[in-house]
Amino acid sequence: MPRSRPTISCILEVERKFRSLAVQELTSNSGYPPFRSIRSLGQQTMHDVYYDRSSILSSAGVWVRQRNGQWEAKVKKGGNFTNSRFEELSDPRAISRCIKDLTGFICTEQEQFGLERIATLSTARKAWIADNKFRIVVDTMDFGHTVGEIELQQEKTFTATANLSIEQQKQKTMEEMDNRIAKFMDRYSWAFCRGVPKGKLTAYFELSSNQFPSREAD
Length: 218
Description:
globular, 8 strands, eight-stranded antiparallel β-barrel, alpha+beta, Hypothetical Protein Pfu-838710-001
């Protein structure tokens, strides 16, 4: 009887950041070429609390947060600061296993997985769906910083093969997703401001450092 091959289901997310929108109202669809379709998803407010322990998680490309009270983890799977690839975890048991692998901590979500709070911020998010699949978001933080993202998310089941491991298949899928976002942003370049974007946590810690210059010595 042949051995069954490992199978796993996961949520993959690929995103590309941009500074801000270059048009005042995206749904006016006034650029050329226009979006094939564009639909507003409205606005929501998110309250995020980020956790780490001596930068162990962030150094490994893992970000753990509570968003509106729900635990989430984003595990980096490649890319760079502007063009990022993640596997997303929302099951507290999976988050706990991920943290244990990196820190050795065996703690429950009620114990914050043994982590410490490192950042708290509120975000007003506007979102749209373009061409029926690309999610465009613009986030404005409570301290005034703005950054946007183009996102593709895919839930997929992978089975290891003789030629490709599950991890190799994940990487291949995310590379294809990133290429689709790159083509989308190139086609609709009129909609997005040029320049180097700055992520919300980077901006948060820069502001905190300026306000509390002795923080690192505390």
